[in-house]
Amino acid sequence: MNLLNLVKTYRYFLLIILFDVVITVFHPSTGYTIFQYTAGNFAEMLSVIPPIFLLLGLLDVWVPRETIIRYLGEGSGVKGIVLSIVLGAAAAGPLYGAFPVAAVMAKKGTKYSNIIIFLCSWSTLKIPMFLFEMSALGIKFALTRWLVNIPGILVMAYIIDHVIGEENKAEFYRRQMANP
Amino acid sequence: MFTLLLYLLALGGLLISFGKDRHKTRLALMKGWKAFTNILPDFTVVLALIGIMLTYLSPHTIAALVGKNSGFPGMLASSIVGSITLIPGFVAFPLAKSLLDRGAGIMQMAVFVSTLMMVGIVTAPLESRYFGKKETILRNSLSYVFSFIVAIIIGMVVGA
Question: Which long-range contacts (CB under 8 A, 24 or more apart) does A17-24 make?
Fold first, then answer.
């Protein structure tokens, strides 16, 4: 990739960095804080993301589509729902880590509602977070939130699944299949 | 801890894969790398935006916003802060705890924690890249409304 392409691909990122630089010129301490947080974010992403993409690559190559369809696809029923919740809750890392995982799940034939359940579970049921929440805010708070969230996630997935429309769903699957 | 587990899992998988089939392993690595570089441009934007967000919405600012308020306006304010910011849990939970100790309501903190985890305005462009606009709007707005329900229930259970 040549330099011009590279600049074009990362144009929005470069614009934000330019904005940060301008702030740094006028308010050095604020700018310094921004760069510190940004660097911290990158460090966090680079520490969590590599094994996720590595596992995704392996999953893509080694797990046959039929297997995923059997466990998470159409007709996977309650087992598929439970498995989606467990997969999401067991996850570590921020929500953006869930998007590429969901993409591969879609590519392998996971049912749409199960993908949404997985995504919602990842966002709010994460067990590592739960342990942390319990120690900070108490078991009553954390446990109530966790338990109320499970039916909530199912209802939300049901609504999204029904409202999203077949053409949107088909487009989503088409886009994931188009990726190598 | 969990990150370490993730690494062990990934490296273990890689070794097993390599032992079984070198060609397939190469393919897996290439696929993983491709997926990563495909999304990296959007990723960098999100991470840079979060850097700015965290600077201007510091724990101090958040405390000023939701610590003084009570009732529904306080919940609304904390839900907005929770939806915009992407504070990691290990910062957010102790922060909520310290605000609680300083007199913030349990429902305000519950809606803050819940929106923080479920609603992502900054990550919406990234979510949209994968799932499309409609899913992104639907999931985030449903999660937003749901966060209030969760908060009210937590208020009833914990506040009682």
Answer: A17/B48, A19/B52, A20/B48, A20/B51, A20/B52
Q: Which of B38, B42, B36, B37 is nearest to B124 (CA)?
A: B42
CA distance A2 to chain B (A): 15
Chain B (31-60) residues lying within 8 Å, Cβ to Cβ, of chain A? 31-36, 38-39, 41, 43-52, 54-55
Angstrom distance (rounded) from CA B29 to CA B36: 11
Is A43 part of the contact surface with chain B (CB cutoff 8 Å)? Answer: no
**Poorest-confidence range of A55-64, B87-96, B122-131?**
B87-96
* Residue of B86, B131, B134, B146 to mutate when probing chain A, most A C-beta within 10 A: B131
Q: How confident is the model at residue A147, as a pLDDT?
A: 95
Query: What pTM, to 2 d.p., does this model score?
Result: 0.79
Which ipTM was obtained for this model? 0.78
Q: How confident is the model at residue B2, as a pLDDT?
A: 65
Average confidence (pLDDT) over A82-102:
86
Residue A114 one-letter amino acid: N
pLDDT at B44 over 60: yes
